[in-house]
Specification:
The protein is an alpha+beta fold. 34% of the residues lie in helices and 34% in strands. The chain is built from 5 helices and 7 strands; from the N terminus they run E-H-H-H-E-E-E-H-E-H-E-E. A 7-stranded mixed β-sheet has the order 1-2-3-4-5-7-6, with helices on both faces.
Amino acid sequence: MTDQVTIAPAGVADAGEILTVQRAAYLVEAQRYADPFLPPLTEALDEVRADLAGPATVLAARLKHRLVGSIRARIDGDTAHVGRLSVAPDQQGRGVGGRLLAAIEAACAGRVARFALFTGADSTDNLRLYDRHGYRIVAHRPDPNGVRLAVLEKTLGADPR
């Protein structure tokens, strides 16, 4: 099924679909942490549009004409800060997230020495995905609402295991 999914740069016109998929994808996380105010759930449409129009690299995954996932990265110095990896709930577990992660890394290649991201410290599926792609936990910190986050990094040229 993932061979039917295409990944390409997203445009401002994709903002509504990106936000819809993002909110659906992060509902499970909100339930896990009993926090309905996770930033991906409270992000406004104008904020998504600003990322799409601004310096962020935003990629969208599509199954035929349906947007089924997205990911963003912002480059700061030698680091690409990856965020908002979202996959529609009915498409999760089919490799879309891994393909989006690989695609954002490829889109930033040659401009950075490392990638950084964070996820909930109890989000085992997310942590497994990032581990498979060579990310390692470098710290833990709370988010503004007290949810414990795992901070992960991947250094280019480092042994993924």
